[in-house]
Amino acid sequence: MRYLFILLFSNTLAAQIYVADPFVLSYNGKYYLYGTADKNADAGIPVYVSDDMINWSGPAGRSDNMLALSKGKSFGTRGFWAPFVVQYKNSFYMYYTANEKIAVAVSESPLGPFIQHEFKPMQDTIKEIDPHVFIDGNGGKYIYFVRLINGNRVYAAELSDDMLSIKENTIIECISQSQPWEIKSGAKWPVTEAPAMLEYKNKYYLFYTANDFRSPDYNVGYAVSDSPLGPFKKYEKNPVISRKDTIQGTGGCEFVTNASNELIMFYHTHFSTKSVGPRRTVFSKAMFTNLPGTDEIIFKVTDHKTFIHPSKQSH
């Protein structure tokens, strides 16, 4: 049986909330949007709150300057990027990038404050960015991340039971640059980054973003495996988000399920065809479905009518 990923279209964003590398946590009937801050990524990680994924209030964090995680409360002094938050047992764990290292901070609330008692990255000897955590149906814990070694390359490993460290002997490279669309003309540093994992019918779909983030061809692809740690085979018809005249530089995707059990793909785009920033947060509805008349399974977007914007309660 073949598995295909097809993205039919992408959303544009109503103005004012600009968060790159967006991640949305669903918890107790509310949605929490985290990401790389547009104006000051050296201050920490912002969070916005919504009941419907359309109207967002915030910043609503409980740390300094209404951030969810702020500089001085955990590892890092600059470049707070690409957060991922997961609830495990009675705590919330934020995996994030700072100083081009990955760290994890803990909170009792999705609003924070996310803190560390000992300021340190998960691994101190190598540059790493873009963490994503996946817990499978059997309780297996995995982390996907990017190492800066002769380019940006996607790696994966098992997480320890306490969610705070990586099992070093399980680290494996999953994705590096190989398809023509991933390569920016003249670039000396190949880029595959921003991993995100979906599981469907015992297959593991590892999404990633490739090309230079400043390029209009910055885009999302995916690869498939029978195991969370690979080996992964790239989809031959990558990328999955089509570049259009009005929407470019799409990347940094993550997924969340809404109250109607619909799968939502969040990502960011360039502000316009002339400017990379501030990067826009956008989303598309998506689903797995059988291609009529075949045994192929297609992942496709099904709706693009809704946009996110600040609610009247926003600060």
Report on this structure.
Helix content is 0%, strand content 45%. The chain has 315 residues and is mainly beta. The strands form 6 sheets. A 5-stranded mixed sheet has the order 1-22-21-20-19, with no helix packed on it. Strand 12 and strand 13 (152-158) form a beta hairpin. It is globular. The model is unreliable at 1-15 (pLDDT under 50).
Provide a brief overview of the structure.
This protein is 0% helix and 45% strand.
CATH level-four homologous superfamily name = Glycosyl hydrolase domain, family 43
* Shape type: globular
Instruction: Label the CATH architecture.
Output: 5 Propeller
How many domains comprise the coordinates? 1
Mean pLDDT rating:
88
Number of helices: 0
**How many whole angstroms does the radius of gyration measure?**
18 Å
- Report the span from N to C terminus: 50 Å
* Helix content bin: under 10%
Sheet with the most strands: spatial strand order: 1-22-21-20-19
Classify the fold: give the CATH topology.
Answer: Tachylectin-2, Chain A
